[in-house]
Specification:
The chain is mainly α. It is built from five helices and no strands.
Length: about 120
Amino acid sequence: MNVKTLKSFIPELFLIASVIYYWILTSNLLNPIAIALLTIIVYQIISKKSTLGLIISGVFILLNLFLVLALISELSEFDVVNQNYKNLIIFGSLYLGLNLFLAGLMFLKYLKLKIN
């Protein structure tokens, strides 16, 4: 694989890294959700189907928008602005922003494939 090919799969590779991170946090070796997600993403990388890519990226966008609401809800529970509040807003916003940006890139990539 050359660098240009690898660059085109950055959103999918980020999704794989996120699923592996989720899998590690659950501390359950046989996590069927993580196994299914990894299988779908790897299948998408191999097959490059535009419809499946649009579905994955659309679901990814919707889930991250839901997580933005969860972040706002969690931030509203703080009475004072302390270091935990600042950490949550900085790292939560960066992570969710990166997720939304990469999901948008993935959506545009597969939308262009679908149109052509």
